[in-house]
Amino acid sequence: MPPSPPLRPTGPAEVVLPCDDLAPTLAFFVDVLGFRVETIFPAEEPSVASLSGHGLRLRLAPEAADGAPRDPGRIRLACDDPGPEADRILTAPNGTVITLVPTDPPLALPPLVPGFVLTRRRDAPQMGEGRAGMLYRDLIPDRQGGRFIASHIAIPEGGPVSDWVHFHKVRFQMIFCRTGWVKVVYEDQGEPFLLRAGDCVVQPPQIRHRVLEASPGLEVVEIGCPALHETLADHGMTLPTGRTLPDRIFDGQRFLRHVAADTPWTPLDDTGFAQQATGMAKATAGVADARVIRPETRSAITFPPHGGELLFNFVLEGEVVLQRGGDHALEACDAFVIPAGEAWGLRDGSAGLRLLQVRLPGG
């Protein structure tokens, strides 16, 4: 049986790597990779050594006495200059494989594979549990070739969220609150605040943030680029930072908090629809834009073809019929993506229709 928690370790944890010939392996880790020796024994004929370096503690020790084979292991070692691709894989004398990787690799954007996407809430599988106990539903299953991800996220029970200070390596990321509220805090953006239904934020690249608490029934829509991106913890930062720097730039973008209650509705040209702009294009320096539209004097609207990367739509409330290659009846929490070069439209929009539109690039 496993030991009863809580455990109270008294020393550093070590990764044990099999090593039957200590001298050459020790020399490799010390002279080539820059580890240092912490422990070595026995003095007269060393066979075991503990090393430390690069945030890692290793223990080189002989094979098990029973002769059972052991995996020599793999180490991923970050370097400022890992060298050419062909020279980034090293093998220690004991068989351990070391892969050299860039410390801060550039963000890679997969080639865009555009296509029409329609996801309906009633047809979706049960939401899966993701980070910090949040439930996720995929809104762009094909990822447009890996370029974009959109998620419908819920915290049904509400309460404190077991999150930590973290950041994302992204080109673009936004959160739109559909129902309920969520308490969040962001680096250099003042005290924690409530993101309420209709509000949204732009999380510029690498801004530190944390989710603190949610109301029962919280639902948000999150959109990110690229689809596969890293979430990294920052254990050294405490939020809030005690500073409010609304104009601080994070990799060319600034933090945006759009408050729906403070934003007027304006006519959407002469379409008979109205829009609530977010100011996202300015905050992201044209990377993306977002708005919410609703019917005013008409229940139908036609959109010309766009020439961008993404035109994502999410039904926040109400019902409408999407006209694209036929009619598609939509209701709350249905989502669709219109590829570039296609005209499309909406008809029979209910009085309570609210449609979130996100496009890249913005402007």
Cα-based radius of gyration, to the nearest Å: 26 Å
Uncertain spans: none
Q: Spatial order of the strands in the main sheet?
A: 8-29-26-31-24-23-22
**Amino- and carboxy-terminal Cα gap:** 60 Å
**Which structural class best describes the helix and strand composition?**
mainly beta
Name the CATH architecture of the largest domain. Sandwich
What's the CATH C level of the largest domain? Mainly Beta
How would you describe this protein?
A hairpin with a 5-residue loop joins strand 6 and strand 7 (97-102). By secondary structure, the protein is mainly beta. The protein is built from two helices and 31 strands. Helices cover 4% and strands 40% of the residues.
List the helices and strands and how they pair.
Elements (H helix, E strand, L loop, with lengths): L14 E4 L3 H11 L3 E6 L6 E6 L2 E6 L12 E6 L9 E3 L5 E6 L14 E3 L8 E2 L5 E4 L10 E7 L3 E2 L5 E3 L3 E8 L1 E6 L6 E4 L3 E3 L6 E6 L3 E8 L5 E3 L22 E3 L7 E2 L5 E5 L2 H4 L5 E7 L5 E3 L6 E8 L2 E4 L3 E4 L4 E3 L6 E4 L6 E7 L3
Parallel strand pairs: 1-4, 5-7
Antiparallel strand pairs: 2-3, 3-4, 6-7, 8-29, 9-10, 10-11, 11-19, 12-18, 13-20, 14-17, 14-19, 15-16, 15-18, 17-21, 22-23, 23-24, 24-31, 25-30, 26-29, 26-31, 27-28, 27-30
For this entry, give a set of tags.
Jelly Rolls, 363 residues, 3 domains, 2 helices, 7-stranded antiparallel sheet, mainly beta, 2,3-Dihydroxybiphenyl 1,2-Dioxygenase, domain 1, 40% strand, elongated
Summarize the structure.
The protein has 363 residues and is mainly beta. The chain has two helices and 31 strands.
